[in-house]
Every structure is written in structure tokens, then in C-alpha cells.
Amino acid sequence: MSEILPGPECSTMTEVRAGVDALDRELVALLRRRFDYMDAAARIKPARGDVRDEARKAQVIAQARTAAEAQGLPGEAIAALWERLVEASIAYELAAFDRRAG
């Protein structure tokens, strides 16, 4: 297996694709960790209605936008990704809450 190069050092599409594939695997592992927190939240929150918190959702998305822009990334695009991520997290947490409540 060849070495994964940082993006700026890539000179072929094979290198680019290998780097993207490796990062995708890392992102999925990070998402697993994030969803583990959703499992914990579903266990800790006393009521199903506590799962959706629009103020917290807005805060998380704003933080992601700010962090993205600080890294030179397009804030609007990252905010849109985080909107989807937070909604998926809420759906996952609701399902986890329902499983726990049985």
C-alpha cells in the first residue's frame, strides 16, 4: 500500500483518491464517536421531548460555520452539512431514546 500524501503534495489522481478515501474512513470513525454521544444523551435525557433543542442546534451549526470560515472553508456549505448532520443526529437520538424506553 502506498503512502497517503497530504493534499498539497499529491501529483496524481490516484494519490488524491487514496487520500480522500483515507479521510472518509477517519470521518466515519469520528461520526461513530459523535453518535456515541447521541446514545449517551438518549440515556441521560429524562423525556423524549428533550431530544430536540432548537437553540442548541443553532449553536452547533453556528460554531461549525465559524470554525470552517476560520479554516478558509465556505461557511454556508459547512453550515448546510451540519444542518444535515444535526438532523441525522436528532433522528438517531430519538430512535435510541425509543429503544431505551421500550
Give a description of the structure.
The chain is mainly α and 102 residues long. The protein has one domain (9-101): Chorismate mutase (Chorismate Mutase Domain, subunit A, Up-down Bundle). 75% of the residues lie in helices and 0% in strands. The chain has 3 helices and no strands. Helix 1 (13-44) crosses helix 3 and helix 2 runs antiparallel to helix 3 (75-101). The longest helix is centred in the first third of the chain and has 32 residues, at 13-44.
Outline the fold blueprint:
Blueprint: H1 13-44, H2 54-70, H3 75-101
**What fraction, in percent, of the residue positions are helical?**
over 70%
Number of helices: 3
Please give the radius of gyration in angstroms: 17 Å
**What composes the largest sheet?**
none
How far the N terminus sits from the C terminus, by CA atoms, comes to: 46 Å
Write down the CATH class.
Answer: Mainly Alpha
